[in-house]
Amino acid sequence: MAAGRLFRAACAAALAVALTGCDTSQLAPRNTATTPQTRPAGLVPPKPAAATPAPQQASQASRDLARYYARLQSDLLARGLLRTDGGGPDTLYTDEMLLRNFQRIALADEYRRGSGLSPAGRDDDSAIKKWTKPIRVSAEFGAAVPAEQAASDRRQLSAFVSRLSRITGHPIAMSDADPNFYVLFMTEDDRASVVPRIRQIVPDVNPVALRVFETLPRSIHCLVIAFSDTPGGYDYGTAIALIRSEHPDLLRLSCIHEEVAQGLGLGNDDPSARPSIFNDDDEFALLTSHDELLLRILYDPRLRPGMTAEEAMPIARQKVAELMGGPS
């Protein structure tokens, strides 16, 4: 991919922000310059999906974004990326690979807490991040989002939320009654309403997080920010995902999968994770079976928020053995 198209969906390392004191977290924009693994000849990339046209009343800026993202999706599909097959004979992985990927994705942060897009260093310790309370997901749409598209996005989000609940065994459901995981579908023309809405949801949100939303470049397709119930904590209590509505259908669905899944606590991307959406190369558009296993490991009740790698990895190894049928 051209060098200008560097960041993909996931400012999703979940900016882990504390509700009180708001010592923000990690952003994880996805880098699409990474070259994907070679695919076997028998796997043929899907035909490019038609882009969802921007509404006639959209501004020039919004129409320009819609055209840009339509070209981007077509380019990715033509290169065999944005796969929706979940993996195949070219993406086999072992129990040790799964364990390694869990450690790198769930127990590492791409960006330093409280510093926006500043990369985390090797010495920056992290820990298990997850929800312990029920998750109530709501979908909100900007005034400029077409009604038909909003209805489709709500259906896609609802289906994915149900899938995540089955995978994790954690109570996750769509609800407009006292939600704590907000998914905002907004166009460029809705930009002015985004920051005020975030302030309504989290009145003492860190200004660093707000600046990311205020100055969002087109290279960041969507993002999620998660907040702990305790200052500096790892037990999530609120999350906000922002998805650009100018995306064509597959990119928008990809954003739903990545942002909501990362908002559950899989906060990092790793170039060796495959088949996975937690990777910078855009090879896979949708949550894979590998990613489902990562979530099942994370939501094992033996793993608690705040556990270090030293504490968590022996438990994760036991869980991987249970999932993969290997020795404990």
UniProtKB/TrEMBL annotation:
Residues 1-27 form the signal peptide. Keywords: Signal. Residues 26-38 have a biased composition (Polar residues). Pfam families: DUF2927 (PF11150). This is DUF2927 domain-containing protein. Residues 49-60 have a biased composition (Low complexity). It comes from the Bacteria. It comes from Thalassococcus arenae. InterPro entries: DUF2927. Residues 26-60 are annotated as: Disordered.
